[in-house]
Amino acid sequence: MKKLIVLTVFGLISIAFLLLINCAQQESGSSPNGNGDGYGFDPSNPSSSYGYDPTVRGVSHFSSTPRPRQSGSTPDCPLCKSPQVLDLEKEHGTSAPITITNRAALEDFRLGVPINSMDDIEDLRVYVKLSKTGKNYYGGIVTILYWDYDRDPSGTRPRGARLSSGGGNDARYNVWFRKSGRKYYHGFFQENAGSVVLVIDKETPVVTDPDNTTTNTLYSGSIWNMQFRMTFSNKNSCNSDKIYVEHYINAQSNFCSGKGNAPPPPFNPLTDCHGDDTFEPLSARNKKCWEFDTGPFDCRTWRSGKGVATFTAVNPNGSCYTKLGTFQGLDLLKAFNVSKISDIRVHTP
Q: How big, in percent rounded to 5, are the helix, strand and coil portions of the chain?
């Protein structure tokens, strides 16, 4: 009788253990393509699998007070700024509201995190903090921030990314130039997860006094987005539908520390946790993404051989970048750290 009780208890424990294993496999068995590769990625909640922080990548930001919904720009006042935006501008530079032209591009910018409703996305803005560096190059920081009330109903945490061009020769493609008699600016900015191209191509006509038709120094443009994905030889992220590099690196780190499943190929569990075989993020490389001519970090547009012909066109060409949206109302004096528009230098080939 005692032997029967012991066997029964052991059997119940075994069943419970098998159920736990099965549940764990179900929770960690989906892939970005939904094909069940089993490396633990949930595209609707990457932080649950990788410890990825989908707020400001590489920078944590919290607001001291919640941001009330609809406290900033409105249809009646599209250039108005909420107190929280004004507070963020102290660190990130002057900003302008972004109008989304491609919802899929915004979800790609969020590294595959879906948007439940566009009504939950508020005050999406580009913050620009640039200055002259090198030979008429204008480099610095571009930050894209917004509030997502689906994921943060309290409105205390803006989400987005902070991207840098570097200075000196690193920013050599970030220039004002003339084309067809008009002046334009475009430039590359990068972070570990991807890159954006900032384009400024027109003025924002704003008249503050109906009796005085003199406009101010506000300008408009567009934001173009590219996220890094894993690739195989002689390919780049433009040609890839594979796992995001940011997710791959986090999965690699978790697996190598014994905390998760292995990421998909090209990862090799036998070698890729050791020294030189470990895949490193862009920040560990010795050059900017626009200096790569192949591989997942190749973020070039206006491609010419292995380089960039920056005067080819105003907007990115090719298939690498997707237009995230347009912006209007950027204060150029503050954005480029000048006292008057004529101080901005136009670069010539």
A: 25, 30, 45
Helices (H), 176-273: 245-256
Question: The tokens of 309 are what?
Answer: 């012909």
Contact 109, 194 (CB under 8 A): yes
Q: CA–CA separation, 30 vs 264, rounded Å?
A: 11
Contact (Cβ atoms closer than 8 angstroms) between residue 112 and residue 34: no
Q: For residue 348, what pLDDT is reported? A: 84
DSSP class of 296? T
pTM > 0.85: yes or no:
no
CA-to-CA distance for 108 and 32, rounded, in angstroms? Answer: 12
Positive or negative: CA dihedral 306, 310, 311, 316? positive
Q: What is the sign of the dihedral through the CA atoms of 46, 49, 50 and 51?
A: positive
Q: Say if residues 244 and 227 touch (Cβ distance below 8 Å).
A: yes
The answer to whether the CB of 107 falls within 8 A of the CB of 319 is no
| Tokens describing residue 255 | 């697996």
Question: What's the pLDDT at 155?
Answer: 83
The whole-angstrom separation of Cα 230 and Cα 260 is 19
Alpha-carbon distance of 141 to 155, in angstroms, equals 24
329-342 per-position pLDDT tens digit? 999 999 999 999 88
Q: Which amino acid belongs to residue 313? A: A
Q: Pick from 223, 279, 274: which is nearest to 251 by CA?
A: 279
- Strands 175-179 vs 159-164: parallel, antiparallel or unpaired: unpaired
Give the tokens for residue 306: 């292995």
**Can you tell me which residue has the tokens 């590489």?**
58
184 and 310 Cβ atoms separated by less than 8 Å = no
Angstrom distance (rounded) from CA 153 to CA 140: 32
Q: Which two tokens stand for residue 2?
A: 């005692």
Q: Report DSSP state, residue 117.
A: -
CA pseudo-torsion sign 271, 273, 274, 278: positive
pLDDT 10s digits, 147-174: 999 988 888 889 999 999 999 999 999 9
